[in-house]
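yo

u said u wanted the structure for the complex thing, so here. seqs first:
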Amino acid sequence: MRLTLDILQVLILILGAPLVRAIVARLKARLQRRRGSSVWRPYAELFKLLCKEELVPPTSSAVFRVAPMVLFGATVCAAGFVPVVHASALLGSRGDFFLFVYVLALGRFFLSLGGLDGGSAFGGMGASREALISSLAEAPFLLGLVAIAVLAARADIAGMVAWTLGQNVFNISAVHILALTSLAMVTLAETGRMPVDNPTTHLELTMIHEGMVLEYSGPSLALIEWASAIKLHTLLALLIALFFPWGMASSGAAWGIAVALLLYCAKVAVLMILLSVIESAVAKLRMYLVPDFLGVASALSALAVIFTMWMKR
Amino acid sequence: MGLVGIATEKILSSFSVFLFLTILLLAVARRISTSVLLFGLQSAIIAAEVFATAFQEKLPEVYIVGALVFLIKVVGIPRAFFLLVKRLKTVRDVKASTTPTQSVFIAAAIIYLSYAAVHSYGGAVHVPDDPLAAAVSLILTGAFLMVSRKKALMQMLGLLVLENGIFLAALITTFGMPLVIEIGIFFDILMGLLLMGIFTFRISDTFEHLDVSKLRRLRG
Amino acid sequence: MLIGPTGAPFVLLLVVLGVAVPLILIASRAQSARRLAITLILAASFAGCVVAVFGFLGRSAPRLDLSWATPFPFSLALDRLSAFFLLLVCAVGIPVTIFAGPYFDLHYSERRRNWTWGFFSLFLLSMIVVVTAATGFAFLVGWELMTLVSSGLILIEGDSAERRHNVFIYLLMMHVGAAAVAACFFLFLPYSHSLDFGAIRGSGAGIPAGIRAAIFLAAFVGFGAKAGIIPLHLWLPRAHPIAPTPVSALMSGVMLKTAVYGLVRFAFDFLGGGPPWWGYVVLLAGAVSGLLGVLYAIAEHDLKRLLAYHSVENIGIIYLGLGTSLLFLAYNAPLLAALALIAALLHTLNHALFKSLLFLGAGAISSATGTVDLEELGGLQSRMPVTGTSFLVACCSIVGLPLFNGFISEWLTFRSFLAGSVLTNTKAQVVLPLMVGVLALIGGLAAACFVKAFGVAFLGRPRSAESEHAVEVAVPMRSGMVLLAAACLLIGVSPGLILRPLASLVQGLIPGVGVPEETLNIARIMPWIAATVLGTVALVGAFKRRKRIARTWACGLPGLSSRMQYTSTVFSKPIRFVFARVYRPDRKIEQLPADQPYFPVSISYRSVRTTSYERALYRPFVEVIVSLAYRLRRLQTGNIQVYLLYIFLALVSLLTFLRFQR
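structre next:
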């Protein structure tokens, strides 16, 4: 029963990911007084790309073809760590958050290599910028999670969620506020959303994530797009699970699961609205200001860790 | 105890968290209007704290102090600042001499320092650690803002944040000073602000800018 | 004299490496003699591995006493820690020897080849002596021999003024380090009355705190100079790139680890831990070395210098683990100390494996293309697939990605930092979790650096004619690399194999602990992660897709040239810009002709980085010593009467001393 629930969670994260991206895009369109495209369009796009043939540059090597597969595999594996409807996950009971962060790093490493393999200047540009951002984003990511882990005295994500479930929702904890702010900033940086990177840009000189995938087409492009959607969905689910998990099912009863699922959808909806508002309201940061952005996130998460010493809350 | 009672208790036990947030955000703020808004937010939190203290300690005159804080610091002073900014037609940038990363690390160090300092003698004064640490952090942050921001308006704001910290410290340790002294302090602040407003106009008129680092004639 | 069933192979190993091989190589210059020598070295290393495995698993502990032949007590013994490091030496020695066969044939003339192989065998022997030494004399002999033999190997490779200067710096710093190590041993002498390791261990408890602190500091400086801790690492980026590649692999992969062995032996075995400041010192050294090492590495475009700086970084990570362990010991948390020590020791082994593999890859590149400058390489993956794939495995391991061995030790280090939060009422409660951020930053920057190194060297288009015509290297070179890559993958996917024996090894060093459960956790979950990732990849890859070769869009230009790609310098520019305070380059832009600014004939740009510690620390230090030396020179006036006066003064002071002693 637990196993089926865990697998269901992973499937929700994987299959619901394009929908999350589409809804955010539609909300942004509405904010900009446009109609926006249908929320089911990414599924049609994925299907279309999977059926197409793939174009491969003549100077590329096996790494070019393997990179999207490794990225997808790593992101799917990371999705297995996060609890959605109940405080346990497929790999999240034994696997801790260090594994989670580094499995995502595995995917990112291969994506950067794939960008360099195309042999064009834009791939190198995207990979170089991505290298800067990801190297600076790992420290606040891990430190924010460490702060929560120190409070929970557990390191596995499912255990941290279970601990949070046992806390009183009205007790405001400085550690959690600081960690949430820091992790939210890191999520924006890791998933390539504004203000760090513009996911809808078509100017190559402003691309970071898009620049690395310029040479990909067909099924490889489908895998990469799907993987980045899964990453966004997984990180949003992680934020919800660590900071607002109340409502998760505690037993395996069917109606408990249904209620938990509905609550999860509501929470994700709130996050999606917030994300679209932020993306529409702020301008993209100049690239050399992004280290400042991530530096603020690092300071906040370091302060969160320091606070765990005084406020065991 | 009632809803008001519960709310009061929650406010009293956790308001310092939000004050720390405003301190960190002040450290990274890039525009004068953002800093002023944050100052207004800070004063609102302190006003809430005053009201909560008044409710818990059942001291009616503290309500008047709270009302004064709200009127002057949350409504009056920010409005005066916005008026000044508009009239002076100055560039909106805060002109910080430290990058945002350095500023926020310094703010984090200030918070750590205040906690470390308060921890050692907080027990003797029978006062919870967090609000006193918040007060000391506000004082140090005000001083830091005055040192690192080069706009004259930001010097004023730094002084106001410093005063916020002193006020909070007095509030926590003595549950409000006598009403007369509070009113006196408020009038002092108002006079100071009036004078500073006049002088900024004069500085801007004479030198065509408000960059304090370029005003170097104060030498022997 | 000999104990256990593995005693005989152990003696055989030493005899072969130390006596037989050099004699064969001196006796004859024939190809067959060389082949015999290589086979003997391989057989000896294999025997060494067997001996080491038996010792590591605790089944036997041979002991060899040669004091009857030497003026000072000289004996070798194999306890579990020594066995672990012997395994490291021999296990890395086998693939490197296999690789070195064709490599030396390609790069050296006949006569030099014999000398090189002779010294190579002696190098392996010296490292084995160091890690199995059971008396101070044996340790110091092996220590000095390592330095001398490796300098010899560097000088055999070539001779030039710059090379001699670099070797001079290497010898100088190693000598200072050896002096400090000797001081460590001699400080024990008044309490242990002999330099035998057993006696030293027994006397450790009775030494006063001040002397213990002095021993620890001397060990830290002495072994730190050999390990390459900043600021004592000046010799590393000078010596490692100029050595022949198999020797660089051994130096970086194995020789640095003997320094770690020394520090572990002294701090944990002999002294049994100490006050918290020991842990903080090691932790600080580790953090600084890790960060600065990786930052300097990112700015390099010479592949071997890049790898040398990465050795500094990884030694920093090992020291982070060691420092954490010392802290936990000081605060009475032996189980957590065991966890941190396991992390440090495992990273030692992992680094030996993947760093040697990286250097062998660099050697393969230099054999195929004649250069290791990243700006001249490119597109090698399709031309040298086996080399490329093994190099990729090594890159993933050094970055610390899951499914590879580097991740396991970094994960264990992270977990020991996290566990530091239980030490309430100490500074460590907050310092150790904050170290997670430091290690995360180091790991992130290392990832950026190796995307650059692998991407620029192996992917994209070739940037020079040599890379375009590169062909795959000989089979022995390939098999050496594949062996190491397989070892990296094996440990990465099923770490339990090595973690269980390591846990029992640490139980011997830190008495009275059980097995930390984190080691069991990672051993259990890693195969599942591997299954998930690889399973998904296989599932996705099973769908056959139509593929068409189509040229990269060049924005309407007739085609992309290799010069339009990102180079290594440009790739690291954003990171170098953000961390500009660390680099402080001297930049010079020259425009010719100078009097016609708008019609230049040529513009040249030069950027020279002297690392800041060199400016701030070494030069003033060297200047002070030189000025002191000049002043001392005044004593040597050349006048014979002054020298007679000195003798007279010495006599007078001796007599006064005798008079006042009563």
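The longest strand of chain A covers residues 54-56. The beta strands of chain A are 54-56.
cya
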